[in-house]
Amino acid sequence: MSPPNNRLDTVIRADLCVVGLGASGLSAILEARRLGLTVVGVDANVIAGGAAGANGGILRAGLSKFHHEAVSAFGREPAAALYRLSAAEIDRVAEETPEAVTRTGSLRVAADDAEWADVAAQMRSLRDDGIEAEERETTFGRGIYIPHDASVHPVARVHALARACSTEGALLFEQTPALHISGSEVHSPGGRISCGAVIVAVDGGLEQAVPALGGIVRTTRLQMLATAPATDVSIPCPVSASFGFDYFRQLPDGRVALGGGRNRSFDTEWGAPAEPSTVVQSYLDGVLRSRIRTQAPVTHRWAAQVSYTSTGLPVMREVEPRVWAIGAYCGTGNLVGSLCGRSVARLIAGTDDGLRALVDPAPRAC
Question: What is the pTM of this model?
Fold first, then answer.
């Protein structure tokens, strides 16, 4: 494909304008094109420039809440339906971008008996719904292994989606912020898109992009680090620890990618810029040396903004006539984001696939 256009500097007419060129926005664009809509996509930064390209690369079925928590919060049938949709999304992502996905399964491990009680409750709930989960003793603690999960190279995944969108005839513009959004127009500094509908597919900063979501969505910062190739540790698959707040995996070249620590400093992370902080990075250093037990030197540190709701369910809402907002994936955008993107594209094209009925249309304030 030819590379995306650098900036929009003219007036374009399309059936749909998508604001945000991460995995969710590009999934919406690709689905809309395949449904016959003309589409223009814009991003204030570059493709994969935000959390879509700077996340832990874990494809874990389910929502941000572990399955037993989701069953308690949403009911067994809705929780199981959402779990199965996200599990099927792993298969679809692997089929769509096989070069970016490794079928590894995932682990959730416990540091002590109290955490193990919660892990065991998750395992029982998964098994109650016919979802495979195996108890495991690991070097990182006692845990459960879920064989269906996977890992993904997030940048490779998003770039592959962008190539597919361009091949299907969508126009993509980087460095094109949306200064004004309505159901019929999106204005940028150098141009304008006249359109029949808009999808705002922004996760971090969603409440700034769509002020109507203020008090419903809240942006926070997630932080990570990566090491040089580590020869003193072997991590067979993505691992979740510390009640899900910490997560790590080993890349094919041996590097360890570790994220988490947000629960160690909630107040400083809400609304914080996408820059690493001393408090959280120091905590991650401790996890790297004492929990993962590698001495490989840290080579990279980074942060990204994502948004949350108090319910743990994403936003998928028509915020004004013909303007849809999707986001607030609560850290699960790799799967839930693409599900929401395709679903909203179908709604705009006149087809309801049922996801909207499973997603809370009006989450409580954070």
Answer: 0.95
